[in-house]
Amino acid sequence: MGISAPSFFQLGYYWEAKIFLVSVRLDVYTPLATGGDWGMTAEALAASIKTDPAFTERLLDALVVIGVVVCKEGRYRNTPVTSDFLVKTSPFYMGELMLLQDAEWEAWGHLEEIVRSGKPQVAGNLFMNRPDLAQMTLKVLYRMGQRMAPSLVEKIDLSSYHSFLDVGGGAGTFSIAFCKKYPALQATLFDLPQTLEYTQKYIIQEKGDASCNLEGRIHLIGGNFNTDPLPGEHDVVFLSDILHYQTYAENQALFHKLYKATNPGGMVVVKDMFVGEEQPGWNAIFSIHMMVYSEKGRCFKGSEVTAWLKQAGFCEICEVERNTVLVARKM
Ligand SMILES: C[S@@+](CC[C@H](N)C(=O)[O-])C[C@H]1O[C@@H](n2cnc3c(N)ncnc32)[C@H](O)[C@@H]1O
Predict the structure, then answer these.
(1) Which tens digit of pLDDT belongs to each residue from 25-50?
(2) FRET label pair with 327: which of 6, 59, 155, 284, CA 20 to 30 Å apart?
């Protein structure tokens, strides 16, 4: 049936996105939180974030329309959602995600040229050549992973396995989550040496219960999974959010390495953002983001991943989460 007429006429208005992103850049929400239930006047907020008072009031009114701030009798305050995700003292702060989206603003301005020419405008990917953005991305992935890793861990039974290889493991979110659930599990996290500097910090930060001994159980190995062999053989090989940075051919080759790194009887777990088979779903929009913001990334279909798994030798392929997680076995 497609889009309704009112929604259709809203489509071109990217204004709201920029208003919102600028509000995060200005960090409107942290000072607003200090106003508590009473909130804060636009003037007081402007003094706190060093902006023009009249224009700050207009910005706040627009944020009320967007639904991220509420206003009563000239005083503005956060909604429950902005209190959780955009106040810097909140344990769930996700402002870096919006800062990353804002950092991509210029690149999105080239979308037409990219589509016309078929040529990317970015060299490599941010993990290779943008340490500032890589660090921010890892922080965002870590926070998102903290929200979703516990439910994934519950869906995949590793109770009969002892060793776990996290390929491109990033901040270590999933190694940490699985090691916490399975105290006998030993993990190896393989990633670029520059990323491992951050990984170490996240593992130390997550130490938690001393009996977990995460530092002693998550072994970090530096390397490039496209050009280096993967280390050792493991009962479980885990790959999360790697495929959409790579070409078809690179992924195809990587699956052969994953197979080699899996013990007979072991399991591979692949998590990514797959484009739906019948309806593309939101991941098709994310695939445009990869077109704009990486040299060769894109989202693949689950059927393409299934083909790579089979070509590599894996069997008993099964979807654990729709368009997100596939598991398979090595006989
Ligand atoms: C999107 S992050 C995913 C991190 C983690 N797996 C997760 O799901 O939270 C991609 C990770 O792949 C790593 N990476 C990218 N290219 C790589 C390569 N060629 N060899 C090894 N690691 C790579 C990056 O350093 C980064 O940690």
Answers:
(1) 999 999 999 988 889 999 999 999 99
(2) 284
Instruction: Note the CATH architecture for domain 5-108.
Output: Orthogonal Bundle (1.10)
Tell whether ligand 1 has an atom less than 6 A from the beta carbon of residue 250.
no
Cα(242) to centroid(ligand 1), Å: 6
Domain residue spans of the chain: 5-108, 124-329
* Contact status, residue 167 vs residue 242, Cβ threshold 8 Å: yes
| CB contact set of 117 (below 8 Å; sequence gap of 6+) | none
Listed as ranges, residues in the chain with pLDDT below 50 are none
The per-residue pLDDT for 158 is 98
What confidence tens digit (pLDDT) does each residue in 138-179 have?
999 998 888 889 999 999 999 999 999 999 999 999 999 999
Matching CATH number, 124-329, of 3.30.70.1140, 3.40.50.150, 3.90.25.10, 1.10.10.920? 3.40.50.150
Q: Given this model, what pLDDT does residue 38 score?
A: 87
221 CA from centroid of ligand 1 (Å): 13
- How far does Cα 216 stand from its chain's mean position? 26
Q: Which atom of ligand 1 is nearest to the CA of 144?
A: 9
Ligand 1 mutation pick, 147, 153, 178, 242, max ligand atoms within 8 A of CB:
242
Query: CA–CA separation, 241 vs 169, rounded Å?
Result: 9
39 lines ligand 1 (CB under 6 A): no
